[in-house]
Structures
1.
Amino acid sequence: MWEYSDKVKDHFLHPRNVGEVKNPDGAALVGNIACGDALKLTFKLDENGRIKEVGFKSFGCASAIASASALTEMVKGMTLEEASRITDQDIADYLGGLPKEKMHCSVMGREALEKAIAHYKGEPVAEAEGKIICECFGVTEPEIERVVRDHDLKTVEEVTNYTKAGGGCGNCIETIQEIIDRVRAQPRRAPARPRLTNLQKIRMIEETIEREIRPSLQQDGGDLDLIDVVGDRVLVATRGACASCAAVHLTLKDFVEAKLKELVTPELTVEEVTP
Amino acid sequence: MTTIYLDNNATTQVAPEVLEAMLPYFHDLYGNPSSMHTFGGQVGRRIRQAREQVAALIGAFADEIIFTSCGTESDNTAIRSALATFPEKRHLVTTRVEHPAIHALVARLAKEGYRVTELAVDGAGRLDLAEYEHSLTADTAIVSLMWANNETGGIFPVEQAAAMALNKGILFHTDAVQAVGKIPIDLRQNAIAMLSLSGHKLHAAKGVGALYVRKGTRFAPFLVGGHQEKGRRGGTENVPGIVGLGLACELAASRLEEENTKVRHLRDKLENGLLTRVPNRQVNGDRGSRLPNTSNISFEYVEGEAILLMLNELGICASSGSACTSGSLQPSHVLRAMGVPFTMAHGSIRFSLSVYNTEREIDFVLEEFPAVIEKLRALSPYGEVGDAICATVEG
């Protein structure tokens, strides 16, 4: 039996945002029934270009359904720019991790999102092109290259866990090994700053508020609570003296937001919400 | 939450009588049956009794029974023995739907240079006996056909096939792990040379099995060691397991009637009830010739692991031939060999009953199961409604 996290079980047994958005702005179907899993994603944007409504339908195992449900929760309220930065690892992290053999479920989520965004923009999808390496599961060369790069994969077995490629007849196993060797031989582009997963980001925001921000506010009889993190928007509610302070927006901008930008990531913005 | 256990082809509960019979051999009677003293020797007598009990269930002589650790060991022993005692023969015949104990073994043998014929089955999982007979050659060392299929319950005509093999002087082995205790077996009536059985499939403990080897059959041991089992299987006997297996076989003989009336009735009630209550489904396997306890049903547009986990929430235990439950990414080799379409194969569920199941349990499953399929189908992008929209997205 698979070891699923409580969050996976919760999203499987109580999936969020099931269905199809009417007159969607973006839509995509990835996978197919022969491969054993498929995901259809539809979304609609609000007037500010943020994802207002999102729906999914999934044919697949518990982790495929949970990954799709998690993805829809994650993208709500995001701009397409923010949504397009979600990685399969983010989806797995949001769910408290996935068994390694099930990582392809989160990859499918990321692919559906990319394809739906491309559909909205009217762009061709890069991944859909390229030579098919695994005939059994229809996996292309660029898809394999990408997971090897993104997850630093070393073995064919790992590639199979992330993409299913090589998990059928096995005829493509040698080719997959060649792709791994080729990609790994290329110099790695070291990112200037390691990109945070959503989960890491939220944890760091919480820690920073707890350690660096609240003690100062509390000295003046004020306080604040973290309500939500949507993409790079940090939503907070003010409490105590802050709630009635006329200069609270200055505190939020010059102190809270500045601290978070400094200690977590420079993209963050802080917004006050009234609970 | 009470457990409704409908996964008896995976394993069974140890019968309470069997457990009780085993317990003294863990503490009071822990002697080694090979010892010279009475303390050990009395255990040897109990093993002899167990050997007779096992033999009686399948119509064998006691000294034709070799105790092993499991069905897999029995299968490996039988095949390797045939190859060792007929070293000039380099060909084996088996089927595409065997249990991994045979399936993986013959794949290994093919790598070692043996020629392997894996017979195809039709859509209902049946063999073509003419094709089978045609596959037997002077170079064939052994034939191994399962008596009953673990996934579908389908029964092969092994007695007929054994006679055809004997005609050509070829050893015939059958993996009867799923058949023993569920259907009558009488080895006095057929030409089967070797037969594998397993304890935990018939209410004995895990870790014990047996291999029947007909008198006069050439034999080479698989586990080489002490003189246990008359030198045919080295290793100190699993005494509590063997004692339990003996009693379990005696119980199975007395319950064969119940297995084929009460259990069959419950299985049919479950199967027919589900077929009535759930649309877009099919029974996999040979309904005309099948174990009385097994039902394998595919539900279109839904995935087996998801069904199992929802059943799990209800306390219902079953299994599936879907890709996701195996980690192999492909649905069951049995369903693929039968040509079950992928739309169906991923959503297959196996229910396997035992004499311990009750009418109330079956009623509960019939009540709850349709809602599970409905819920998953509502999630699925496939089916009538979804297909139309998929087409527009793809376009």
Note: Residues 173 and 269 of chain A are 46 Å apart (CA to CA).
2.
Amino acid sequence: MNSVYLDHAATTPMRPVALEAYTEAARRLGNPSSLHRSGRSAQLHLEDARDALAATVGAHPSEVILTAGGTEADNLALKGLYWARRSQDPNRTRIILTGAEHHAVLDTITWLEQHDGAELVFVPMDAEGRVDLAAWQAELAVAPEQTALATLMWANNEIGTIQPVAEAATIAADQGVPFHTDAVQAVGSIPIDFASSGATTLAFSGHKLGGPVGIGALLVRRDATLTPVLHGGGQERQIRSGTLPVALMAGFAAAATEAHQHLDAERNRLGTLRDLLIEKVQAAVGNAVLRGAQDRDPATGEKLPAGTRRLPGNAHFTFPGCESDSLLFGLDTAGVECSAGSACTAGVAQPSHVLTALGLDEAEARSALRFTLGHTSVPADVDHLLDVLPGVHQSALTAGMAGRVSSIRTANSHLERN
Amino acid sequence: MKVLAAMSGGVDSAVAAARAVDAGHEVVGVHLALSRMPGTLRTGSRGCCTIEDSRDAWRACEKLGIPYYTWDFSERFAEDVVQDFVDEYAAGRTPNPCMRCNERIKFAALLEKALALGFDAVCTGHYAKVVEGEQGLELHRAADWAKDQSYVLGVLTAEQLSHSLFPLADTPSKEQVRAEAAERGLTVATKPDSHDICFIPDGDTRGWLAERVEMSEGQILDAQGQVLGTHPGAQAFTVGQRKGLNIGRPAADGKPRFVLEVRPKDNTVVVGPREMLAVDRVAGIRPSWAGAPVSEEATGDWFDCHLQVRAHGDPVPARARVEQGSDQLPDDVTPVGATAAGSAGVRWVIELHEPLQGVAPGQTAVLYQGTRVLGQATIDSAVNSARLGDAVQG
């Protein structure tokens, strides 16, 4: 059976140019830190790749700190900024954030709260998951001197909502507070320009844009101070030690370059396909609720270019009366691969913290499905989904009912507790 | 047949699933996430306490080439099994949570979901046998009596049995299952058996209960009502228990004393010598038949059988009859719906040919004829002739 892959936000197929660049570089010997010919050659390849990568995100090459992925980049930015800021002033412990951040951000900050004295300030969001900028401004104005950092993701990995990052960063900058943005879902999908973003640090990842897994980057402004998390050989401006992975970097840069070249065309193509998917899912399942923002003007309802308010490849629904795991099971069996949101170690579909942060109750949050499109998606994928969705939805609905009203009589089922 | 193999992550369920695949069924493996123990994952997370078990189950499914999923039943489990366990203890009874889990989770919540999603049966690694009898399906003991688990399945009804698959039924020994697992390349071949109550991982049931049931100091009495001492909370005691009584004075006859009765209402514990633990008459409420009822059900006549009151206890010869009279339901439960499999108002009266020790209210009485499981009832009272008909009330 042919599988239809609608989970590009989890990981997307490696682009052929990236695979080629990776395999070619992996054959070559050399540690970029070595001073001999092999080392110099490796360094040359690495720095060429760094230049190319920086160019795709509007950064200076020296602002690119390579990491093992998006999670490490977020950890480095948040811990690095927090520790550095607090060492300047021990009372500087506030961290401003929203409840919809990725676990790589949320759990890192929670760790700082539990182990290192951080005080968390959650800023509310609207029903679409966009931060309330007035509240953001107010929280930053309360005690900027005691605020270690503020962080806001560029685009949400579950519901696809794009945040007003430029405004939020400007507000933080006006108060002299460093600003980190987790742009893992955004880079390669919508235009990102680090120089004009106002961000102090920006995290992104290789495999989300068609590069290899195991590499990511943190963009760090040259005037920013970060305390290192990994100590060792002093690579990457002493901020992130560890032997530099030339081949992974070659693949990463090649993927980012190709994604960047086709970005505008892909945005429109995927945005159109996504709108078709949304329209068809809502036609097939009348009560499916689209979550997150839409690429429409909130005041006039006028259509906006794809990727203005929502990631072009993201469609996210809740299906009342169904449980995600029943839907996932049915779709997987029928050859459609998608996601309930974000994964858990044991593979259990958890009620999404993003959806509960938006005020959904647990039952609603447990009925979510995310379909994400990417560079290999074609209209036939959407057709296949719609061929099987009505049947899968129907049995998930029956299974959902079974979870609440037992049809199987058991020895003690006539006894209901008062 | 489309079969859902419930995969605990242990060797039995893995081999059971493998045999279901060999039998030509279309098998999908599902691991049930049942617990939301704090500290095992990030705070507030649910359903993934058993990452190792989940991984083991997944590895086994990969080996068998079948799809694998984890389904979260932690909410149902917390309500139907864990809370029930606490409530039963608080009421002075001794429940069997594994039985409750089979009744309400594996062969109800899971089975219902499976049926809704197009499966025909749930397959588990239980050692028990379902056979086609003259009057429909019957539940029987496994070939390996040492591993036999028919007791904890005694609560299944005909409907539940008709959707159950126990591929280990005829396996002569557990060693053979392990050998088969090794032969099949399953990594769980040498994984130790699980023993304790799964939601009390350190095995300290008393300590676990103390955190959940409000207890206060009360009196320890002898069978004549004389005060012998005090205890920290009646609910922490089980009939037949000897340890932890801490009675200062020795008994007149110098013999050890055992818990004869737990009375949560006036928070007292009654103790006495071992021989007074022996009971010869047991009443069971909320009975259900594992398949067709015995023919004596309608007439109320006595029928010969064996009684078993714990998972690995020896069956005792007995006779039993069904009484249609009304029994007292516990205060906190109300009967709803007359068509339920376990009928309210019906009770079993069981007379033992040999006395049995340590029978506690709340335990499950499973009746057998030969290897066949007739059904089960919850023990409501157990009578000791030595105490002249004094009922041991729950």
Note: The first strand of chain A starts at residue 4 and ends at 5.
